[in-house]
Protein 1
Amino acid sequence: MRFTFRWYGEKDDQITLQQIGQIPGMDGIVGALFDIPVGEVWPLEPLLKMKQQAEKNNLYFKDIESINVHEDIKLGLPSRDKYIENYIISLRNAAKAGVEVVCYNFMPVFDWTRTDLAKPLYDGSTALAYDYHLIAGKKPQDMVKSILGNSNGFVLPGWEPERLGELTELFKQYDGMEEDDLRNNLEYFLRAVIPEAEKCGIKMAIHPDDPPISVFGLPRIVKNEKDLDKIADMVDSESNGFTICTGSLGSNLKNDIPHIIRKLGKKKRVAFMHVRNVQVHEPWVFNEVAHKSKEGSLDIFEIMKAIYDIDFDGPIRPDHGRMIWNEKGRPGYGLFDRALGANYLCGLWDAINRIYGKK
Ligand SMILES: [Mn+2]
């Protein structure tokens, strides 16, 4: 298993590779080329550059998050074949640069949704939060405006302002699309991409919907165990894998995450682990918290134990952190709380190894 930390690149991240390399137990970065518009080919050269930059700081670059899937693929438009072709070339280039795991999502329009990017917690820290009451009866445009208003000037993945101009148009295109239609479009994509990923030694890792419920009437198909099973069955390959994001799946307390890890782990389909905690107040009202189990609704020890039990050998990363110690950073992606989260996960991992074996 490799402990990793998401990095937005030297242009877009206020956190340096040296800082990441100084986090105890950190093995690698999770990177992406944010300059490449969705749907275009990721060239080899900048990927190699990222690898060199990481290695200079004693970090691996073996994991990408995310090569985004073009909307035409999700919509099932005739133009999807061209974008699928590009996607496959991107995977090949990533493999040439030593990449082993590629995270992606299949959420229509929005990558993730929150109603507050800086909700004050009891200790004066702030965290991302979601409250469905605040969305009920609102237009997506209103939510987008409020999100962009408190992002500390950072461009958030999936919320790029240029994409949001097309929001009304996009919603029209999804009008009437059911979950099964979207599932068919995912299957079409996977049937084309997974054999190629397999050939070049890459594991694709679909990220759960965040939050795992329909927002603004859009279909969502990566919400729970049943959804994951359906996706696993679409193409029988270890390259058809999952990112188990505990914070996304865990915002629905009905999702038994250790069980899901063990079940998919048996089939070697757990490709990437995102571990973070959430505090769920009532269904679809939650906020993010520090990683420690007692701060939230998830038992992080049980989750780490499940990861141990499946002999997981892929990347794991702390996921979103709170803003603490007056840090001003990209919401969810500051340095301090994520570094603390990484250390907590490393501590649990060491203890589990001591108790149960010697991995
Ligand atoms: Mn995640």
Protein 2
Amino acid sequence: MFIQRGVGNMEAHLRNNRRSEVVILLVLIVSLAATLSPSSASPIAVATGEKVELSLYYEALCPYCEFFILNYLYKIFDNGLISIVDLKLSPYGNAKIRSNGTVVCQHGEWECVLNTVEACAIHAWPVVSDHFPFIYCVEGLTYEEKYDEWESCFAKLNLDPKPVTDCINSGYGHELALQYADEINALKPPHTYVPWVVVDGQPLYDDYPDFVSFICKAYKGSNVPQICLELSLPTTTPNYGAKPSNHVGYKEEDNAKSKSMLPEIVSAEAAESM
Ligand SMILES: *[C@@H]1O[C@H](CO)[C@@H](O)[C@H](O)[C@H]1NC(C)=O
């Protein structure tokens, strides 16, 4: 079971992350150099089991989701955290499937369209460092309410539109939406709003803006990125150990845009049970 999971992870890494090859090589070298751990499992299994799974369940046009992607999540590609993270994006959120199989979205038709666009982008470019810039671009446009300009992201990022437009026009995008629906609806514990951030299977609830420290805590490997070392240093900065102060700025800035202040709640009952 454990071995199968390790092999599965390894395959996913080889497929999904070019950097994993470098990481595996480094770990191999380090492991060969260190003769101190003769009883450890194979270096490759250790290396691939190390990454922390970060999943974001979100939907297009949800202000908190846009804000999280545009102001928090993108940083993991700049601060080195991505080297220890297996990031999975799930663009569906609180949409519902009608009895006739069509999808209804909280924010109307544009949300459904753009959820499908983003699902197709993930499908077209499965490596996260390839699809994330496109999704970041689309989310940036929707934040400015330029919903109909999403296709400008192809040229902006020098990407071929064909795999994404084919996915949408063939109806495969709709199939992907149904798959993402199954995925979010199978979550245990279930999601109660979006953005719903999950680290190694554990939802972060309202602490999601602090996801970096959860990832650093969950990471058991030896290639600790600088950002995690900085977080764990005894520090003289006054905010250490406090609730992330940026949460406040987050709300204020959303407020300034006079958009909804609330995460996208699934239902009033679900919200009360939290
Ligand atoms: C599905 O149902 C909705 C509302 O009940 C309706 O507006 C829509 O046209 C239907 N679509 C198809 C493809 O049957």
